[in-house]
Specification:
single chain, alpha/beta, Glucose Oxidase, domain 1, Rossmann fold, seven-stranded mixed sheet, 20% helix
């Protein structure tokens, strides 16, 4: 039982659909955002602190959220919640976990993140799958919004990227990590190797820095908004140093080499997305969170697709035919999700070692 009093609330979608539920009384203002769904059964801490969800209202399809509470933040992907709002069927307010320091509901209250409970999230997911991602609003009275602002028109990468460069580690491989809304676990995984990682803002010109390779992070929104990042990347690709990317980083890689990207109908968000390595025919379960994909028909001749999403055959990874450039649409750093594709980081480090031996 929640300690806070609840009031009637509704989720109103831009197509006219309305879902009725309840919300905590401390919520007063209408909340707008792009409504998307995540199919993960666990990992709500990492999911809500992932900057890639900026501007979005997140629907959890799993019916009970919060059963293991919220930790002190050691496993978060950033220092705060980034979603505009949360939709759940049920929240569990008496968590059972040794590392829990507060309940899921209390965490949202502290972070001032709106939530609506009692929604049939699977019915809502069916609407999104049929209609596509859609703008929505949390409303607490009888009014219906006359206009739904496009929350994704904002350049969210500019909002969530770090403000200044920072250096981490003291290893022999000097890596530039371009922060477009990077999850913390990307940095954690890079530091597992003999690396010095310089995390730089999305607009930082690293071309004159001393580095052995570049790693492009995940991030929110439309990759085509990242014009400065793409321009710098185009010049970096001419230097022939290893460049790898994840999620938004993969889309930026494609745009930098002249390919095109497009918005998916409802995106891929969850920890059970199956992908196939087209070279080995090996299949992996992967963690994913993106709303855009690469149009493989626009890739230049010296690039190829090396991973595909098994569910819909969309591009899940691209690689240069002769140079050390590669990127994946899924999240090898997981958090949350399976760690099956951690080898992507090992491949990047091996390319750095090969380049240093030349």
């Amino acid at each position: 039982m929640l300690k806070d009093s609840l009031i009637p609330a509704k989720l109103v979608l831009e197509n006219g659909a309305v879902f009725y539920g309840v919300a905590p009384a401390w919520q007063q203002s209408t909340t707008f955002g792009e409504v998307v769904f995540n199919t993960g059964m666990t990992g709500y801490e990492e999911t809500l602190t992932d900057p890639s969800y900026s501007g979005q209202i997140l629907t959890f399809t799993f019916p009970i959220i919060g059963n293991y509470g919220v930790s002190n933040g050691d496993n978060w992907e950033s220092k705060k919640i980034h979603v505009k709002g949360v939709i759940c069927q049920t929240t569990y307010d008496t968590p059972q976990h040794y590392a829990s320091v507060k309940s899921f509901f209390d965490w949202l209250k502290v972070e001032n993140t709106p939530i609506i409970l009692g929604i049939d999230t699977r019915a809502l997911t069916k609407v999104i799958r049929e209609y596509g991602v859609i703008n929505g609003a949390f409303v607490y009275d009888d009014t219906v919004p006359s206009k739904f602002p496009d929350s994704m028109a904002i350049n969210w990468v500019e909002e969530v990227s770090c403000r200044k460069a920072t250096v981490h580690g003291n290893g022999k491989h000097k890596v530039i990590l371009v922060d477009c809304g990077s999850k913390e676990n990307i940095l954690r995984n890079l530091l597992k190797f003999d690396t010095t990682v310089k995390v730089v803002p999305f607009s930082y010109d690293y071309l004159n820095d001393e580095y052995d390779g570049v790693f492009l992070s995940n991030g929110p929104g439309d990759p085509k908004q990242c014009t400065t990042t793409i321009t710098i990347l185009q010049k970096a690709l001419q230097q022939d140093k290893p460049i790898y990317g994840i999620c938004l980083g993969s889309q930026l890689m494609a745009l930098a080499v002249g390919a095109n990207t497009y918005k998916l109908k409802f995106g891929h968000r969850g920890q059970n997305q199956p992908c196939m390595d087209l070279f080995s025919q090996h299949c992996y379960l992967t963690s994913q969170n993106h709303g855009y994909a690469i149009d493989d028909t626009t890739l230049p001749p010296d690039w190829m697709v090396n991973y595909r999403n098994i569910n819909d055959s969309t591009v899940a990874g691209i690689i240069h035919k002769t140079k050390a450039f590669a990127s994946v649409q899924f999240h090898p750093e997981a958090a949350p999700g399976p760690h099956d594709t951690f080898f992507f980081f090992k491949q990047f480090i091996s390319k750095l070692e090969e380049a240093q031996q030349l």
